[in-house]
């Protein structure tokens, strides 16, 4: 006898529910900034932990992104006799796109997963319920310090990755393409504007806040024990990475139209 | 002014979690100064009942009255004010693992009172001494035994001198000696601090030791409420089966 086909899970409603909860966490976090002074110690502790924890991977991202971009664009430019133009392309690419996107995707994996696992474990071990029964709101107590730490750390590490990437590009340009340091730097100085740099940091700020909101919302919604924590962690990395790529295009357009970046 | 009537009053409370209709018209009153023990099989909704009392869960239908006021539709700020009157002892302790024992016990004071550090340390030491713990302030929760975690959880619950203490399976997973020590602490909380307690358990020796009244939960409703003596003398086969832990009886071992 044929079994009835089970109704497909209502993915769309779950998706909207999750998105709504994440947006609600974001706005509740913004509205809890009034307790910033009270939570200053937690903000400093998380900023320090996230910042120091993120440095090694940022260095690697900066070095290899800068090297790859220089090598691939350099080969194309070399073939048309314009190898020195890597000094224009690489710093622009690093500051506007590669620095913020690559750094923040890696930080979404490193720090987003850490936040989701921390808060998720607290949820399944009833620590968050215990906080609520003690009349301690988990948003200002747990979420806001981590959110602010991400908003500080992501732009700082992105700036770090930008400089390292430009430096690594300079070394590859010299060793692989025969472009002198002087030519590379002259081209960079001539074409790189300050708005190219700060538009990238603005992107990193948005990416950091999005990753923190997604991670905290996933952590707060965790259920079903260790399996749930694993799922929350995975969802955080996947959702944050996809949102970073989508928002990168939107913010690129915004920076072009409203800040005149690339105009 | 103290409202007349029961301190905690659950009126026809219904709650469905997932596809399971856990509470199916639960009605229960808790009186001032008493220790009420809720018994029932695992997974029957005892903890769900406790969570309704502190607003962690809201009923799908029915009322949860605390001192005569229905908290089921309260906004967060009002709920926080009501929760200030409660202490909650969690089954697994629910201590914040990133903080020392002393910081855990001090947390409600640091969040809600404006006291100097010395005074907070003194109160924390005093409350830990009440639960018979000494020089543990600097230890981390991860290295504590189950019994110690529950006692620290109790110290945290009483640190702001609550009017009500709710205990979720306070003796689950403990050896008989530690269970007795926890039972004595629960009795002491009533005699020395005069608090009203609701204890959820399926440990019958513990229930008979600490209860003024016992309520039995089955299929989402309270099927009997009475003194420990009334439970011992009952002829109801369902209650007798549970109280004496008999395998044969109206309830199957696998059925919940």
Provide structural commentary:
The complex is a heterodimer of chains A (263) and B (256). Chain A is mainly α and 263 residues long. Chain A has helices at residues 11-31, 40-79, 86-124, 127-133, 138-177, 181-191, 194-220, 225-258. In chain A, helix 1 (11-31) packs across helix 7, helix 3 (86-124) packs antiparallel against helix 5 (138-177) and helix 3 packs parallel to helix 7. Chain A is elongated. Chain B has a domain at 33-45 and 81-244: P-loop containing nucleotide triphosphate hydrolases (Rossmann fold). Chain B is 37% helix and 23% strand. In chain B, strand 7 (164-168), helix 6 and strand 8 form a beta-alpha-beta unit. The model of chain B has no long low-confidence stretch (mean pLDDT 89). The chains are: A mainly alpha (263), B alpha/beta (256). Chains A and B meet through helix 4 of A and helix 2 and helix 3 of B.
Provide a concise account of the structure shown.
Chain A has helices spanning 11-31, 40-79, 86-124, 127-133, 138-177, 181-191, 194-220, 225-258. Chain A has 263 residues and is mainly α. Chain A has one domain (39-258).
Question: Total number of β-strand segments of chain A?
Answer: 0
**Total individual domains of chain A:** 1
Which band does the percent of strand residues of chain B land in?
15-25%
**Inertia-based shape of chain B:** globular
Reported CATH architecture of the domain at 33-45 and 81-244 in chain B: 3-Layer(aba) Sandwich
Oligomer: heterodimer
Helix and strand content put the structural class of chain B at alpha/beta
The CATH homologous superfamily of the domain at 33-45 and 81-244 in chain B is called P-loop containing nucleotide triphosphate hydrolases
> What global shape of chain A is seen?
elongated
Rg of Cα set of chain B = 18 Å
Total number of helical segments of chain A?
Answer: 8
Q: Please count the helical segments of chain B.
A: 9
Average pLDDT confidence of chain A is 92
Beta-strand percentage range of chain A:
under 5%
Give the CATH level 1 class of the domain at 33-45 and 81-244 in chain B: Alpha Beta
What string gives the helices and strands of chain B in order?
A: EEEHEEHEHHHEHEHEEHH
SSE string of chain A, helices as H and strands as E:
HHHHHHHH
CATH fold name of the domain at 33-45 and 81-244 in chain B: Rossmann fold
Helix content of chain B: 25-40%
Main β-sheet description of chain B: 6 strands, mixed
Q: Could you tell me the number of beta strands of chain B? A: 10
């Amino acid at each position: 006898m044929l079994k009835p086909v089970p109704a497909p899970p209502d993915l769309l409603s779950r998706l909207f529910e999750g998105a709504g909860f994440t947006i609600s966490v974001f706005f509740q976090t913004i509205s809890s900034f009034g307790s910033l002074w009270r939570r200053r110690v937690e903000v400093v502790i998380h900023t320090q932990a996230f910042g120091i924890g993120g440095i090694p991977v940022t260095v690697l991202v900066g070095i290899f992104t800068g090297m790859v971009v220089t090598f691939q664009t350099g080969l194309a430019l070399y073939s048309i006799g314009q190898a020195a133009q890597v000094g224009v392309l690489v710093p622009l690419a690093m500051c506007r796109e590669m620095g913020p996107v690559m750094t923040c995707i890696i930080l979404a994996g490193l720090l987003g997963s850490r936040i989701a696992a921390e808060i998720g474990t607290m949820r399944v071990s009833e620590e968050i319920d215990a906080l609520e029964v003690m009349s301690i709101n988990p948003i200002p107590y747990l979420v806001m310090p981590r959110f602010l730490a991400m908003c500080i750390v992501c732009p700082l590490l992105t700036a770090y990755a930008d400089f390292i990437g430009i430096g690594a590009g300079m070394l590859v340009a010299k060793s692989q393409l025969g472009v002198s340091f002087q030519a590379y730097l002259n081209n960079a100085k001539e074409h790189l504007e300050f708005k190219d740099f700060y538009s990238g940091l603005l992107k990193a700020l948005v990416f950091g806040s999005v990753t923190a909101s997604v991670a905290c919302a996933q952590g707060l919604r965790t259920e079903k024990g260790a399996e749930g924590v694993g799922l929350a962690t995975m969802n955080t990395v996947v959702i944050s990475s996809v949102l970073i790529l989508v928002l990168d295009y939107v913010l690129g357009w915004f920076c072009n139209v409203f800040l005149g970046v690339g105009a | 002014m103290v409202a007349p009537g029961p301190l905690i009053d659950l009126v026809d409370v219904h709650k469905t979690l997932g596809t399971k209709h856990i509470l199916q018209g639960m009605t229960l009153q808790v009186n001032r100064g008493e220790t009420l023990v809720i018994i029932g099989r695992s997974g029957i909704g005892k903890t769900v009942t406790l969570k309704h009392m502190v607003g962690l869960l809201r009923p799908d239908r029915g009322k949860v009255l605390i001192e005569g006021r229905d908290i089921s539709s309260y906004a967060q700020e009002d709920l926080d004010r009501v929760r200030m009157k409660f202490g909650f002892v969690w089954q697994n302790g629910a201590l914040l693992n990133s903080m020392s024992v002393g910081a855990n016990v001090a947390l409600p004071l640091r969040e809600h009172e404006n006291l100097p550090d010395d005074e907070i340390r003194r109160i924390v030491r005093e409350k830990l001494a009440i639960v018979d713990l000494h020089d543990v302030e600097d230890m981390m929760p991860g290295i504590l035994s189950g019994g110690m975690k529950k006692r620290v959880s109790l110290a945290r619950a009483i640190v702001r001198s609550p009017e009500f203490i709710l205990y979720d399976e306070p003796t689950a997973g403990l050896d008989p000696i530690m269970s007795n020590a926890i039972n004595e602490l629960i009795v002491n909380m009533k005699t020395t601090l005069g608090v009203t307690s609701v204890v959820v358990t399926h440990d019958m020796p513990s229930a008979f030791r600490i209860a003024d009244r016992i309520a039995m939960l089955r299929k989402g409703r309270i099927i009997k409420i009475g003194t420990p003596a009334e439970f011992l003398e009952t002829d109801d086969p369902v209650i007798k089966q549970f109280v004496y832990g008999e395998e044969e009886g109206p309830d199957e071992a696998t059925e919940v």
